[in-house]
Amino acid sequence: MEHGTGGTATDGGWAHEHRYDVLLATPAVHEAVRRNAARARRPMSAQEFLSRAASLTPLVGAPMLGGAERGRRLGLALRLRTGRTREAELPVPVGRVLAAVLCSLALRAQEVRAVAQHEDGCTLTADIPSDARTFGGVLEVCVTRAAPGATSVRAKAEIPGQLIDWGTSRRTLDTLLADLNAPDLG
User: How far is the C-alpha of 136 from the C-alpha of 132, rounded, in Å?
Assistant: First the structure.
């Protein structure tokens, strides 16, 4: 997805499209998202990591596995959560930014689970996959049209049930913003 400041003859006018369903139905965008999803790699989940650790150290492994699960349930019950937010304004039309967000989410195996359409953009809610540091979380990305040809992005990464996320929220947001500034995700 080449970033530009305006629509071109090759983008069919979708560069300024802010509606999620219309943008995703655009063949070029759909194909770019599909290509990125095919390249995605899922990290080893927290459950897999703990299971492997438990098999290596049988005396402490089983109690560790059970303790981690009880700790997570307690953290969720106490409504513990950690997270970060970031904002950026990009000199790129809203449709191109939304397409880049969709490609980034697909590449990072962050499945979109909700879309809220707004008058001038939309908010995408995606899952942050579980990894060796966390049991997963939620990434919310709000993309809105700003000045002509510019787009505002507000992203929030949240890890529920944990007091410390070991940098997962920061890395998730850093990666998203780096992907949005990449010249080509497709």
Answer: 10
The pTM of the full predicted model, rounded to 2 decimals, is 0.80
Cα–Cα dist 29/38, whole Å: 14
Q: Which two tokens stand for residue 58?
A: 């049988």
Instruction: Give dist(CA 97, CA 90) in Å, integer.
Output: 8
DSSP-assigned letter for residue 167: T
- 186 against 136, higher pLDDT: 136
- Report pLDDT digits (tens) over 88-144: 999 999 999 999 999 999 999 999 999 999 999 999 999 999 887 788 899 999 999
Helix (H, G, I), strand (E, B) or coil at 73: helix
Strands (E) located in the chain: 81-90, 112-118, 121-128, 137-145, 151-160
* Residues 77-80: contacts with CB under 8 Å, at least 24 apart: 79/160, 80/160, 80/161, 80/162, 80/163
CB atoms within 10 A of CB 101: 26
Cα 48 to Cα 28: distance, rounded to the nearest angstrom = 36
